[in-house]
Amino acid sequence: MPDRDTDRLDDLETRNALLEKEVSDLNEVVTTLSGEIETLKKYIKIKLDKIQNTMNDSGENDFKSISDEAAANKPPHY
């Protein structure tokens, strides 16, 4: 009977160690992705600011929907 308890305890300790490793690995992935998301947010903000500045420089202050833009810029064959 004591051998059985020892085996169960060893099994639980092994499972616990594996779960701790998994949590550590997942935490590393989440941390990496969080940094990448922040970088992408900054990139998008820079691009959006550049687009807004370009529109302000060209005198276009109103943002148009995609369908309005498409209707205003139809190719000549339409």
What can you see in these coordinates?
The chain has 2 helices and no strands. With 78 residues, it is an all-alpha fold. The chain has one domain (2-56). The mean pLDDT is 87.
In summary, what is this structure?
The chain is mostly helical and 78 residues long.
Measured distance between first and last alpha carbons: 86 Å
- Average pLDDT over all residues: 87
Q: What is the H/E order?
A: HH
| Number of distinct beta strands | 0
The percent range for helix content is over 70%
Please report which band the strand proportion falls in: under 5%, 5-15%, 15-25%, 25-35%, 35-45% or over 45%. under 5%
Domain module tally: 1
CA radius of gyration is 28 Å
Shape descriptor reads rod-shaped
Compute the number of helices: 2
Q: What kind of sheet is the major sheet? A: none
Low-pLDDT runs of 5+ residues are none
| Secondary-structure-derived class | mainly alpha
